[in-house]
Input
Amino acid sequence: MPKNIVVCCDGTGNEIGVNMSNVLKLYRMLEKDDDQVVYYDPGVGTLGQRKTWGRISQNAKGVLGLGTGYGLDDDVLGAYRFLAEHYSEGDQVFLFGFSRGAYSVRVLAGFIHLLGLLHQDQLNYVGYAFAAYKRAAMDGEDLSVAWHFRRIVGGRTIPIKFLGVWDTVASVIVPRPDRFYIPSLETLPYTLQNPSVEVFRQAIAIDEFRRMFRLRRWKEGQEFKPNRFSTSQPRKQDSRQVWFAGCHSDIGGGYPEDESGLSKFPLRWMIQQAKANGLSVNTSMFNHLVEGKARSDSEHEYAEPSVSAKLHVSATGAWRILEWVPKKMKWREWPKRKGLLGYYLPHCEPRVIPEGAKIHESALHRKEAVSSYRPQNLPAAYDLEM
Output
């Protein structure tokens, strides 16, 4: 019997503990049985450290992971091995991630599209396969090495049923042979578009301004065609990216529970979207963790969704200092930032929300409920997402 295989990759800096990210809350809600097998990766820097030096080291690795892709290989290959060991033809694959974990699952999906899914008895080749995948980024879209490797090992063609992410951020540093192997920030293949993905969903923060948390948008209007050699007519990919009120972790969770009312809207939305596509979720746990309803067998209380809940300011401390470091003009997003000699100061640069973007109704309800909430990047014309 076909089953669901669910991979959950958490974001950098979200410790496993009382303050749970939306990925961890989703993991707790998932049915786990023979019909749905589940994998959870806490991500770089998410396992709690008791000692001060351990916490400092953990945070440093988290920042390094956001800026360079540090730890990405381990995250992706761990999830890939789980899929290879559990996948059978006809299974439905669901991938979820937040922050750097969101980029990890997008890389995982791109890796599978380009190289295929190895059989369990071929996993000794997985490191070579991933190197071939990353080589495609180094060679500037030359996929010949990757395709040649796939022909040799015979990677399986599998569709990704659902790819759901909260606020994707991350970069990967790779050496470019065309630039004398000088390291360069690169976007890995099929992370911005991927014809193996049937359904794509992304919840995006309206109020995230930090320079190291720039959004990785998904290209709209793609086709769903996991087998590039198929002669059948491709279907349109079901893609939706929706903007919510809040900063990065107001969207993906991780703040103290009594300050998590805003994060429940993107969590509820994502689960509803995934359930409509076949994900199995425990209703009682959903009501407890998302809707804030009490359970007789739990001593913990969870916040209910609230449009007037605390909206956190993420650009504080060291993050704020980084906003005064000059940045090349070619990376400017907000047109009101002025440049000088090819550089400009980001100074908490707003994300650009395009005209016609999907804005969740909770963001507009917050505008009505909180008089001080007036985001400057809301477009004049938008589509309302319920």
About this structure: Residues 317-352 form one domain. Residues 52-68 form the longest helix (17 residues).
